[in-house]
Amino acid sequence: MLLSYCYLMCYNVYMKGKTAILILILVFLLSLSSCSQHVHEWTLGTIIREATCTETGLAMQVCAVCGEMHEIETEKRPHVEGQTTTISPTCTEPGAVNVTCLICWQVISSTTLPALGHDWWPVEGSYEPTCEHEGHDCYSCSRCNEIRIDVLPALGHDFSGPVERIDPTEIENGMEFTRCKRCSLAQCVILPKTAIAE
Ligand SMILES: [Zn+2]
Ligand SMILES: [Zn+2]
Ligand SMILES: [Zn+2]
Ligand SMILES: [Zn+2]
Predict the structure, then answer these.
(1) What residues does each domain of the chain span?
(2) Which of the 8 DSSP states describes residue 39?
(3) Is residue 12 helix, strand or coil?
(4) Higher pLDDT residue, 45 or 193?
(5) Which residues surround ligand 1, an ion (CB under 5 A)?
(6) For ion ligand 4, residues whose CB falls within 5 Å
(7) pLDDT band of 44, cuts 50, 70, 90
(8) Which ligand has the nearest atom to the CA of 89?
(9) CA 178 to chain CA mean position, Å
(10) Which of 61, 96, 134, 162 could form a disulfide with 42 if both were Cys (CB 3.0 to 4.6 A apart)?
């Protein structure tokens, strides 16, 4: 009986010792992890690749506390205004004023100049329309020599002048007679014989 009690005591002490060691290990681990969990204080280290106006750059950042390093992308540089080129507009095509970048030659701003439209001037070859035939107005552009022909429709006869009348009789037809004011073409309207009175 005494022997078994002694054994139990010894076992208890042994177990307590083991727990103490376990606690010690835990405390050690906790202190270690809390040490590595600081807020990094990043400072700009070396530049690996300079940023340009077409590509981002690359730089190395270093933590001032633990010395950890990592790469970061740096922003593109703005374009540098260079040459201005003017493309003149034509009668039909718009032009532009383009500004290129001094470094990469890309067009960085463009202003459209509207097309001029033709500058028409009358040229030989035009003729007036008549009562029955269409006319043509001919023009040429002073800048590009393009030709334009406007068709003028035929005018049609103008029978609005005075009407001559020959009255019909019982024997002969009558007539209404007009001439076109422009081309003198005659237009006749037959008036039938009057009915013979019974
Ligand atoms: Zn750090
Ligand atoms: Zn550029
Ligand atoms: Zn033109
Ligand atoms: Zn006519």
Answers:
(1) 40-78, 81-113, 120-152, 158-198
(2) P
(3) helix
(4) 193
(5) 40, 63, 65-66, 68
(6) 131, 157, 180, 182-183, 185
(7) confident
(8) 3
(9) 64
(10) 61
